[in-house]
Amino acid sequence: MVAAGGELRLRSAVFDETWDPGRPLRAACGRGHAAPDPACACGVYAVCAPADAVRYLVGRDDPGVLHRVLGQVALWGVTVEGERGWRAERARPLRLLTPTGRTNAAPVDAAAIASALALAYAVPVELISESEPPALVSRFS
Ligand SMILES: [Zn+2]
Fold first, then answer.
1. Engineering a disulfide at 124: which of 25, 51, 95, 116 sits with its beta carbon 3.0 to 4.6 angstroms away?
2. Residues with Cβ within 8 Å of residue 64, at least 6 apart in sequence
3. How far away, in angstroms, is 95 Cα from ligand 1 center?
């Protein structure tokens, strides 16, 4: 998640794509075809098993990244099923889980972030302990 224009915005854990509140995230591909394409790697990714999502709490920590959160999403449009999940044409968040701390130990006001995300994206946002991955995973069940 990043700050954009003074507001908190969800951003891909891998790409620089930000997720604007109130409208679906739409996949795009730099190769110029409709996304997702079965022969490409493009699309909005989602994993099937919650345990597979936990690893995204660790990763790139660019200066603009304020925190890392997990979410449950709705996917629709063209969807390509993979071994561990899906790549979809469109997605929207259904709920978000905000860890109380960061895996890189950087200071974070998780409660303020959770409140701001709930207001911006109009979805339930829960605070979770990042030190208890099994508890975190059970929240998705
Ligand atoms: Zn593509």
1. 95
2. 2, 3
3. 27
**How far apart are the CA of 31 and the centre of ligand 1, in A?**
6
Distance from Cα 8 to the centre of ligand 1, integer Å: 28
**pTM of the full structure:** 0.86
Distance 93 CA to ligand 1 centre (A): 22
- CA 89 to ligand 1 centroid distance, Å: 11
Q: How far is it, in rounded angstroms, from Cα 80 to Cα 7? A: 32
Amino acid identity at 51: A
Beta bridge partner(s), residue 25: 91
